[in-house]
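note to self — DONT lose this again. spent like an hour looking for the file last time. sequence + predicted structure for the chain T wanted, 450 res
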Amino acid sequence: MHLTQKSLKLSSSGLCLLAAIFANHAKAQSQYFTTSITTGDTYSWDAANWSVSGGTSSGPFASTWTAGDFARFYGGAGDTYTVTVNAAESMSGLYDDVATANTLNINDAGGGTGSLSLTPDTAQASQNGFSWLTQGFLTGGSVVNINAPITGTGGVEEESGGGHLALLGNNSYTGGTLFTSSSTFVDYNNNNSFGAVASQIGYDGTTFSIMNNIGPSTVNIPNAVQVIGTTGVNFIGNSATMSGTWALGANTVNIRNNGVGTTETLAGVMSGTGANPVTFSGLNGGTVLLTAMNTYTGPTVVGSSGDTSITLALGVANAIADSTGLTLAGGTLNARGFNQAVAGALGLTASSPLYFGGVNTISFTGATATWTGTLNLADWSSADTLQVGTSQVLTSAQLADIEFDGNAATLGTAVQLANGDIAQVPEPSTLLLGLAGGLGVLRTIRRRMA
């Protein structure tokens, strides 16, 4: 169920956005950082660089930071500058509001004592016993690198507007991270980027929330994930692991890896109810590796229109949910030597490769599914089993669209045995030689239990 969705739109004047900010942070006064910025310079959050008057003032301002306020940075249009934090500064979100996109770095002052302590907002969404108590972080199309630790009982809410919100500190906030936009990149680089382990990630009905790993490929995000409404998630940057569980609910979900040749490992169990599909897609030759036995009940789709350069790989047996079927829609399924059983039919909506990756059994027990395109059993061997079940009877035209070993010359050599197994009839010349020798060879794959 989609509980709450906040979508803040930027206008040229910013008035609609500002009204929304004030509505969401009614208890917090805005404070405005000085506009007297020189690119490359460093300024102090804790010093007298703030004002409670309008952000169009020319500064410098004479007031220090007031605990719990909302930070607005008006200075440094087009510049790159740094603001250091020396104390645990209580705050309720921030907005980099400049006419020309800039780069704002927020760093610890160097003594290890600086942090941004988030106060909790009222619940932005509540689901499965968790409430996101997030404050708005708005980039205004700029790059905001938060290297200082983010602490407190509040959380971070990524808003629309473009640019990059980079969560790069050793963060321990507990109020959750809520994605509400498909336009702003959320950069991360360490295991604690999204706060304490108990601080959950929520994808709030976005077309594609953007998660960009700018750290090493060893980054492991342990936070649990909950999907709130129809959602897409777009992983870019370096390879990474997400080891927290995923609660999909009854929602349609598109998990996309757009990293160039990268692997996004999903190590937590993905659960969900209902018959809505879970789609794995990508454009740049990436892989999504499933290393848990997932339990969601909707169908699985590999590839989507215009988004088929993706491999869904298994890291354990039966990693794909034993659900209502699997459809190859142009993407690649690589079982990597693991058995996989699906309580549904095998569907084909675009030409797709299937790799066994070793001696294993891939089986389906469903009755019927769409079958369009060529199914390429790319690394077929006589020790593998593809079993589509006796209730899914493939037509001669469908069998003619199965090829073996990535070799187009083997099109039309597939048969379905009485037990549902797919087998390959040898080339005519081979068959004649076999008959002449009294052998009657039929390359088949023995049915096994998964």
